[in-house]
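Whether sequence alone determines local backbone shape is best considered at the level of individual chains. The sequence in question and its structure tokens are set out directly beneath this paragraph.

***
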Amino acid sequence: MSIATSSVTLWFVLLLPFVGSLAIAGLPTRSRDAAALIAGAVALAGTVLMAVLYPQVANGTGLHTGVSWLPSLGLDIILRLDGLTWIFAMLVLAIGVLVTVYARYYMSPRDPVPRFFSFLLAFMGSMLALVLSGNLVQLAFFWELTSLTSFLLIGYWHQNESARSAARMALVVTAAGGLCLLVGVLLIGKIVGSYDLDTVLASGDRIRASSLYLPALILILIGAFTKSAQFPFHFWLPHAMAAPTPVSAYLHSATMVKAGIFLLIRLWPVLAGSEAWYLIVTSVGLITLILGAWAAIFQQDLKGLLAYSTISHLGIITLLLGIGSPLAAVAAIFHTINHAAFKASLFMAAGIIDHEAGTRDLRKLSGLYRFMPITATLAMVAAAAMAGVPLLNGFLSKEMLLAEALEDTNETLLDQALPYLVTLGLIFSVLYSVRFIHQSFFGPPPTKLERRPHEAPHWMRLPIEVLVLACVVIGILPAVTIGPFLDVAVRAALGGGTPEYSLAIWHGFSKPLLLSVIALVLGTAAYLVFARALNAADAVPLLGRLRGRRMFDAVLSVLVSGARWLEDWLGTRQLQPQLRLMVLVACAVALLPFLRHGYAPGTEPRTLIDPGFALIWLIGSACAVAGAWQAKYHRLAAVVLVSGTGLASCIGFVWLSAPDLALTQLLVETVTTVLLLLGLRWLPKRLPDNWPGKRTPASVVLRRGSDLLIAVAAGAGVAALAYAMMTRPLPNTISRFFLERSYAEGGGRNVVNVILVDFRAFDTLGEITVLAIVALTVFSLLRRFRPARESVRDPEQQRLQDAFDEAHAGRAPGDTVSDYLVVPRIILEWVFPFIIVMALYLFLRGHDLPGGGFAAGVAMSIALILQYMAAGTRSVEARLRVRPTDWIAAGLLIAAATGAAALLFDHPFLTSWFHYLEVPLIGKIPLATALLFDLGVFLLVVGATALILIAIAHQSIRRPVRPLRGREETGVEKR
């Protein structure tokens, strides 16, 4: 397979889960079979395609493909496939196939199963993107995306408070760790000078020698420890058992918790080898190993036992990586694979027990072997692998762990105690494994079950059978089965430091074998002695009061209380104090340069101001002052006066030869003025002040005086700054760059529009996204908005007109209003198509002349607003099918698709293309992809404005709520 074909295949594997997630999200709620089929097909196709790519990594060359994003900042989208990433990608995809098959039979048809599979594929895609990332910032981004998608999976049964709480806890812990990781990788990028993973992996000595090494190490380790549930961040994982069992099997075997392990392995060559790494990572891994195993012993819930055992085994992997020797790193990679196999099968077996027996409580379970012998046999083999029984895969990596623990790495107390503490942890591991087997499948038949247990359907057991077979085959024939794949992964992770190692089953009688036998014997004996006491335990001894959930809630409570205190101290329900504080802070910050460097006007020669220009701004200033004066009690007059200031700004732009700015300002001024006028209708009436003794209190006078001083200071400061700038020579700014390249590289002569849709198109994409969010938020708020009581009644003029209609025969209420607006309505209906034509004209000319998508969208919005004002809400909506959300969605999709299309031609996102087409009789016609992006802006602006307009307009067709049992009306509702 060629490099180009392999690159395309890799991109396809990455994008496939996200596409499948979107496809499943559109299925009906009860489409369980269709959703499972699509999800399984996506995971299976990804597995097959990733397997096809194996030759690319087996020969050591790997695969490196990317898309230029922000090359000047070293931020490109890079996919990097080597032996290590291939192993992790195969774990994500292959176990994803098995979990999908299992979930088809586990999930109830009454659940919204398509939503489950949609979340599952989104999580799968996030994990794939994480392990395939060739850029550290890109890795941090997908790290947080896995936190978000796992939040959706854990909280899938959102009707349960425990699921909501567990999802919130997992998100807070892992997302906080992700922020630490982001800062850590930024420090690494600062040390190395690049975020490219290949460059970073080649700079180990430089990183370890830097003064920023220790803070970067600590921050990255916090990110890894939170994700992989290492002490002291382990507490979120057991609570995540509130998720459906397929989620637990997937998250705790191959994906979520392995993300932190992957990061530690990936960065092992550059971060390991220091004393800080050894002490921190080894200590945390060892504590997690023992703590998790100890807690697992006393769990009464099957999934709880498996969750704490997961924590313990993740501690084993972390401990191995902390030791710092290449052989320990080999053992860590090997145990990562082994753990994925036996832990996924154990969770699925626990799910079958819960599904068929109706409980996961170990105290109620016993003798299930009689009822489900196949499931019991599979679970016992998997649990034996977890305990490290010979001829199973877990035994091999356990032997490697003990061998590395016995090595004299250094002379520290931790190194000397390591063999004994590791053996203790393995004894605990055997104990809880034996308890899992004996308490579930042996003993008398269960008597406290709600229903008679029975075997699950064959297809539900099939994933467990596959995984258990892998445990057995790897345990018996490790060198033949897993050996080549492990070798590829190890060489990719360790590079030239890859040691010689053996996967033979028998290494002769040795200390590791002796310790392994001791662990098996003592663990089994401990269960036989303490079995009855374990079943009676209600809490974990020695750790009963150290409840992670309680500590998490306490920390969260302190943070929330602190935030509320800051809100009470700095915030207010009124806008005026907030504006006062904001302006004061801005003035203080702006004053700092003047205090440090002083103030002096420039030396450019002064010019006389044109009288006409001065008159325009005198009128504009007078309107602004008058508007502020009238704002409290005469809102209508204030809006009209402020619009006069806006009109003065438009004329000023024209005067200064900026017609594009003037056009945009005029259109925006028109829309905002009309929307403000519509909103004024629903504001509560302002009453004049009625102070005791008709004397304004001194506090009010002081507040108003301070507001006046702040306003004068801010205005004078801006004026002084503007004067100092305008009396100095024009500096060499970025504007020259745009002027010189607007036509040559953007294909347009309207520099402002070319900046918006080409040079700074990414900013524009973000801005229109924010505009869409604002419009949807305003609409959502106004749907539940209930006007002030005095605003519910019709205006006085309308009441008089309705009274006139009722007093005259042959007239109905509303006839006078209809007659009153008949001429404006007809005129505006005639003008409507002309405004649409003008909007299209502005849109098509925008790349070379004043106009563009934004201006055209605002003009189109004005046409809709005028129709609503003249004809009324019901009349307009009876004739026009306005679907603002469709316009918003289409605008965002077109804008994003235009940018993504550049990637297909190996250009950065949102790179534009232009060409002049010669058309007979017409001449040259400019063609530019920026026009498509501008179309997206146009559609979104129309949709957003129309959505806000409709939200306000629908207030006029509400009516008062009928009084209930004599009570006064308390709100309004739609007709």
Q: What stands out?
A: The longest strand covers residues 63-70.
